[in-house]
Write a structure and sequence with these properties.
Blueprint: E1 4-6, E2 12-13, E3 26-27, E4 30-36, H1 43-48, E5 54-60
Antiparallel strand pairs: 1-2, 1-3, 4-5
């Protein structure tokens, strides 16, 4: 199974439902990848509104 991205929170997942927000609105059409390790100290996480460490897509179609 390929990675999918939640259209709500942009988290990358292998599941059929987002493990964080519970949305089932997922897309396999996405681009850009950012990995946030320490969101409290990350300027990028602050700028894009991420509060939990994980892999995120930058653009979801």
């Amino acid at each position: 199974m390929s990675e999918q991205v939640c259209r709500e929170c942009h988290r990358i997942t292998l599941n059929q439902v987002c493990p964080v927000c519970g949305s089932s609105d997922l897309s396999s059409d996405w681009s850009g990848l950012v990995i946030i390790i320490d969101p409290k100290r990350s300027k990028i996480a602050e700028k894009i509104g991420i509060e939990m460490p994980d892999k995120y897509a930058l653009k979801v179609r």
